[in-house]
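Technical note accompanying the year-one report. For the benefit of new consortium partners, we illustrate the data format agreed upon in the data management plan: each record pairs a sequence with a C-alpha cell string. No post-processing was applied to the example shown here.
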Amino acid sequence: MTIRLKRRFQKKVKSGRAFFSTSVLALIASAGLTQTMAFAEIEPPKERIITTSNVLTQVVVALGKEAELVGVDTTSRTTPSLKKLPDVGYRLALSTEGILSLKPTLILIAEGAGPQNVLDQVARSKVPQLMIDELNSVEDIVAMTEKISTALGETSRGEQLATAGEISAEQLQSVVAKRPNYRGYFIMQEAGGKGSVSISGRDTSADKMLALLGVQNLFSSDFNNYKSVSIEGQMEKRPDLVFIGSRRDFASESFDQIAPFKHLSKGMKEWPAKLQPKCVFELDMSRYLVYGIHIFDEVLALREAVDACMTEAK
C-alpha cells in the first residue's frame, strides 16, 4: 500500500514537473517571439533632410521621403505641404543658422549653392552632406537620382525613377526630331523694368529648356545669362514663339491642379499686329526652369501645345 502511494505520488510529481517545464518553455518562447516581433516592428530612425534646390527636392518627394524633409530652399516651396516647411533661403544665399538650427541628419547640396562661407561652416558641423553636380544631360539626371536614392535607402524606387526619366527623354527626342524647328526666346517676367524685361541668353535653365523643346534661342548668340532687352530689340528678332516665365502662388491651390502653361491668345502687349509672334505661352517657372526628373514630361506636353498652336496660326 505504501509502495503504491509512493509510486502514485512520484508519477504526479513527474507529471507536474513536465507541465511546469512545458509551460515555462512556452512562456519563454512566447516572450522571445514577442520581443522578436517588437524588434521587427521598430522602424529605423527617420532622416532629417534639408534640400537646397528644387531639382533635389523633386527627387526626395518622388522617392516617397517628403515626410523626412525638415527644411527646403525657397525655390522648392511649390506645394502647400512644402510651403509649410522652414525656408533655408535661396540656393545662392543660404543661411548657416537656418540650416543647422533644424538639426538635419542629411543635407543635399546642389552645384553652385552658396555662399561658400556658409558651406564651409556647415561642413565643419560634421552633418552628413551629399553634393550633387550640375545637371546637363539625361545621364546626369539618372546619376543624381541613383545617388540620392542610394543615400535614402530607396535604391529600387530610384532605379524605377531613373528608367522612367530615360524613357521620357527618348520619347521627347523622337517627337522633336520629327517636328519643325522654331525660332523664339524666353522672358523672365519677374525681372526687368518698365518697358524692358530680362531675356534668357545662353547657359541658362531657360536656354536648356528651349533646346529640349526644339526652339532656337534667338538671344543665345548675343549674351550669357539674362539681360534686359527693349521691346524694339525683341521685335527685331521676328520670333515665331515667345515664352514668358512667371511664378504662381502655390499657397492656395494644389501644385498638380495648376496648369503648367497657358496660351496667351492676345499675344505680346504693345507689339503691333504685323510683328506679333505666331504664338505666345506663359510658363510656370517652377516646372520649366527645373532641369530635373520631370522636365522631359513637362516639355513634351508643351511641345504638343506649341505644334497645335503653330499649325492653327498658319
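Partners are asked to follow this layout when depositing records. The first helix runs from residue 2 to 41.
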